[in-house]
Amino acid sequence: MEYVEIEVRAKSVDLAVEAAMQELGVTDREEVSVQVMTEPVKGFLGMGGQDAVVRVKRQPVRKRRSRGRGKGERNQPQTKNNKNRQQDRSKDGKNGDQRRDRQQSKPRSGGKHMRTESKVSDERPDMSLEEQATVAREFLEGLVDAFGLEGTVTTVIEDEVIIADVSGDQTEAMVGVRGAVRSAIHELTRTVLQRYSKDTARIRLDIAGYAERRRKALSIYAEQLIEQLAEEGGEIMLEPMSPADRKVIHDAAAAHDNVTSYSEGEPPRRYVVLSLTRDDSEEE
Questions:
Q1: Element (H, E) at 196
Q2: Whose CA, among 101, 109, 126, 144, lies 20 to 30 Å from 182?
Q3: Span 129-208: which CATH code?
Q4: Where are the domains of the chain?
Q5: Using CA atoms, how far apart are residues 92 and 129, in angstroms rounded to an integer?
């Protein structure tokens, strides 16, 4: 008998094998042999991915021998004594299982549970700021190539902070709506540094000048709110912002002696509240 061999492509190996089994009309995984031709490769943001390719062949079904009784016992009638002996054996088996369960559940070492913890060694090296800046730059350069864009990546170190800048007219596509893609790339870069270095430095990322434009716009917006606060009094609660955006508002409020600012809420819905400082002499 000739068994059919098919080749299937899917997002993962399991999905490809499942599709092949459906096409072959097989429900048991043991009835087919699977050969992985190509492993799947995940892309970034839906780009550069590669599907898995498997070759599946249906195997001949092996006959299983039934574990029955011997020839002398096959047609032996079950007498009353045989039934009683079988019931006694089943009771003894149950009682034995219960005794074993009770013995296993009893704590050892004087009735105290012994708990051992395995220590996992951190094999990541202690990289310098310059080495981490090189890792971040190489990662961002590869990311620009993965997007199929033309751009330049530069990194500098200021006050123990890695400042990475991705410049170029085409890199505007890596910013996204309200900087959503830029924020995701920022988190990815931090994750890469944490993977290679034990003590990870802080990193600040700007793409196509978006961060600088954002800071200037927020500074102007904060000054307008502070003027409104001085005229009307009370408090002004802003919309939820990222930590970097909240810092711009706090810095703008700190430049005024009669204005204070503080953050409230839980991430990612944390926001800034602006209010006037209280004058103790006026209250008295």
A1: helix 180-196
A2: 126
A3: 3.30.300.20
A4: 5-58, 129-208, 212-283
A5: 70
Mean pLDDT of 179-186: 90
The CA distance from 195 to 189, in Å, is 10
pLDDT at 107 exceeding the cut of 90: no
The phi-psi region of residue 110 (left if phi > 0; otherwise alpha if psi is between -120 and 50; otherwise beta) is: left
The structure tokens 């034990």 sit at: 198
Q: Would the pLDDT of 71 be above 70?
A: no
Q: Measure the CA–CA gap between 153 and 168, rounded to whole angstroms.
A: 9
Split at pLDDT 50, 70, 90, the class of 43 is: low
Contact call for residues 128 and 143 (beta carbons, < 8 A):
no
Residue 281 has pLDDT above 70, yes or no: no
pTM over cut 0.70? no
Question: Which burial class, exposed, middle or buried, applies to 84 when counting CB atoms under 10 A from its CB (0-12, 13-18, 19+)?
Answer: exposed
